[in-house]
Amino acid sequence: MSTHDNIVLNVSGASKRFGGVQALSDVGIQIQRGQVYGLIGPNGAGKTTFFNVITGLYTPDTGSFSLGGTPYTPQAVHQVAKAGIARTFQNIRLFADMTALENVMVGRHIRTRSGLLGAVFRTPGFNKEEAAIKARALELLDYVGIAKYAEFKARTLSYGDQRRLEIARALATDPQLIALDEPAAGMNATEKVVLRELIDRIRNDGRTILLIEHDVKLVMGLCDRVTVLDYGKQIAEGTPAEVQSNEKVIEAYLGAGHKPH
Ligand SMILES: Nc1ncnc2c1ncn2[C@@H]1O[C@H](COP(=O)(O)OP(=O)(O)OP(=O)(O)O)[C@@H](O)[C@H]1O
User: Fold this and answer.
1) Which PROSITE patterns would you find in this protein's record (predicted)?
2) ipTM computed for the complex
3) Which of 131, 149, 191, 252 has its CA 20 to 30 A from that of 219?
4) How far is the CA of 128 from the centre of ligand 1 (A)?
């Protein structure tokens, strides 16, 4: 397999403007299969905008996008999910009054044949599929370490466990790429260690991960490659060691006008 075949996400020339703000300016990244790829930058650098663009929440002004070698147009969230990108959000978005298990099952439904109509009419095909979905969802809860909370409502789980539940739900869609938006936000040191182990395990199991994270130590310890954004521009790309010693990066993080993280 050539390096090219191994590229999961290929984005080039992505730009997005909001009124007077150029939130993203000609950003391009290539993520290889099995990598954890980090996206970092000071507040307002454009990280979330980039996530929103590649996942269909925002329509980009320019850019070309391909996933697993197939071009895609990120225009609708459900199309992007079907194409194979699953994401979590900075502010957790679970179905708070559904159980942990049900939350993961919802993620799985986008890959099933019976779909919503089958669920409404409870066809035989649906019932069989439903049992398989449930079994897979339980496996995933176990995988992220929260199987014991399967029947708990999502809102009753601790913050760290809710984040892990979001990851289980993302995995349930069998994504080509998992995009994690600040998964460690609000976590304590112990929870961060557990999260790091989980992300490592997901990578070792052959998945590909794009990560926005403010915790620089976590990013540098976990990521294979990193892109640094600043005012919408890509100011550095490389291994964590290369990026950390880059003058522009040091300036962006330490220079005036930015809050350090
Ligand atoms: N929907 C929007 N409408 C107008 N401006 C927006 C919108 N979304 C983002 N922006 C602007 O685009 C710029 C980039 O914001 P973005 O949220 O992508 O940055 P970020 O790197 O994710 O920041 P943070 O680390 O604070 O989450 C900011 O100036 C922001 O105010």
Assistant:
1) ABC_TRANSPORTER_1 (PS00211), ABC_TRANSPORTER_2 (PS50893)
2) 0.95
3) 149
4) 44
Please classify residue 60 by burial: count the beta carbons closer than 10 Å to its beta carbon, then call 0-12 exposed, 13-18 middle and 19+ buried: buried
Q: At what angle do helices 100-109 and 124-144 cross, to 10 degrees?
A: 120
Sequence spans of domains, the chain: 4-84+175-254, 96-158
Q: Structure tokens of 219?
A: 């990013």
Class at the top of the CATH hierarchy for domain 4-84+175-254:
alpha beta
Distance 140 CA to ligand 1 centre (A): 32
Q: How far apart are CA 225 and CA 38, in angstroms?
A: 6
Q: Decide: 229 and 39 in contact? Cβ < 8 Å.
A: yes
Write out the DSSP string of 73-95. Answer: ----HHHHHHHTEEE--SS----
pTM: 0.88
- Residue of 49, 50, 89, 215 best suited for mutating to test ligand 1, as the one with most atoms within 8 Å of CB: 49
**φ and ψ at 68, to 5 degrees?**
55, 35
Q: Which atom of ligand 1 is nearest to the CA of 90?
A: 27
Task: Give the number of the atom of ligand 1 that is nearest the alpha carbon of residue 49.
Answer: 18
Per residue in 99-115, pLDDT tens? 999 999 987 766 665 55
Q: Whose CA is nearest to atom 25 of ligand 1?
A: 43
Tokens of 37: 């790829």
pLDDT digits (tens, 9 = 90+) for 25-36: 999 999 999 999
List, chain by chain if needed, residues with CB within 6 Å of any ligand 1 atom.
18, 21, 23, 41, 43-49
Strands 209-212 and 177-181, sheet pairing: parallel
